[in-house]
Amino acid sequence: MVISLVMFGPTMLKDRVAVVTGGGTGIGLAVAKRLGELGARIVIGSRNSANLETGSADLRHAGLDPLIVQVDVRNPEQVDELVERTIKHFGHIDILVNNAAGNFICRAEDLSPKGWNAVVGIVLNGTFYCSRAVGRQMIQRGAGGSIVSILANYVWTGSAGTVHSAAAKAGVMSLTQTLAVEWAQHRIRVNAVAPGPVESPGAAKQLWNSQEAVDRITSSVPLKRWGKPEEIADAVAFLVSDHAGYITGEVLTIDGGAWLGRGPFQFV
User: Fold this and answer.
1) What are the start-end ranges of the H helices in 93-191?
2) Is residue 34 in some structural domain?
3) Which residue from 82, 178, 191, 207 puts its CA 20 to 30 A from 96's CA?
């Protein structure tokens, strides 16, 4: 799904304020850049100061002027500070993209409580803390807003070695649908996107550390390629825009058809 700037125009999100967690690298950075190109004022948050520095430099090179905030989304006090700094700097928040995540491959029987809590803390708890803090501001302001969370296509299927991440992201899917119903009265739309394999150096080091693994995953995708961060960013841009004004509680899967075609008969 590629939604071009020509279709939407560089002022589609003019003067809207967008907070992107995990915004210093990969999908998060691509989302921040795309929303900025469409006119939004950007805030990127990350617990990694080096990622913030490189991410902000990339955005400035693209002509944007982001606010950068170091934040661990597992810490609700730090999340509240992120929101407070954004309000102080820009005056309000219109868009939240919950992208901060953690993952690593591990068999369920070998996964330690510390490893479980680390991933669930970032993905599920962090998404709730950020959504709650930003949602409160949106409700108080009374102008509506849009929240999009980044999931993964294995929320539909499960995936061996990712019990912590799959469970956490499935929780975020339920959170998305619940908040969509609860906050609709406040004109806050809550959606999610579920990418499949996406070209990302950081994720590759954690999850796909051999060419054999990359080739095997590529062959399982009907479109026979990996997604690009920009394609995920385009989908997020659509969901936070007025073009998606009647869409809430939806999860958009973006994986080249990877989670489909799992029946017993194969013709290709």
Assistant:
1) 113-120, 126-141, 163-182
2) yes
3) 207
262 belongs to a structural domain: no
Taking residue 215's Cβ as centre, other Cβ atoms within 10 Å add up to 11
DSSP H or E stretch at residue 35: helix 26-37
**In Å, how far are 22, 66, 82, 92 from 52, measured between CA atoms?**
9, 10, 14, 22
154 is catalytic: yes
Q: Is the pLDDT of residue 223 over 90?
A: no
Whether the per-residue pLDDT at 203 is higher than 70: the answer is no
Instruction: Give the model confidence (pLDDT) of 41-61 as tens digits.
Output: 999 999 999 999 999 999 999
Within the chain, strands assigned E span 17-21, 41-46, 67-70, 95-98, 145-150, 188-195, 251-254
Total number of domains constituting the chain: 1
Name the more confident of 209 and 241: 241
- Give the CATH number of the domain where residue 45 resides: 3.40.50.720
- Return d(Cα 93, Cα 138) in angstroms, integer: 7
Identify the domain containing residue 133 by its residue range: 5-200+228-253
Please tell me the distance from the alpha carbon of residue 211 to that of residue 214, in angstroms, as a whole number: 5
Is the pLDDT reported for residue 237 higher than 80? Answer: yes
Name, in order, each residue with C-beta under 8 angstroms of 36's C-beta and a sequence gap of 6 or more: 18, 42, 59, 62, 64, 66
Q: Which two tokens stand for residue 12?
A: 């589609």
Looking at 154, 183, 208, 259, which residue is catalytic? 154
pTM, 2 dp? 0.90
Question: Residue 66: inside a domain, yes or no?
Answer: yes
Q: What are the tens digits of pLDDT across the range 123-150?
A: 999 999 999 999 999 999 999 999 999 9
Cα torsion 127, 128, 131, 134: sign: negative
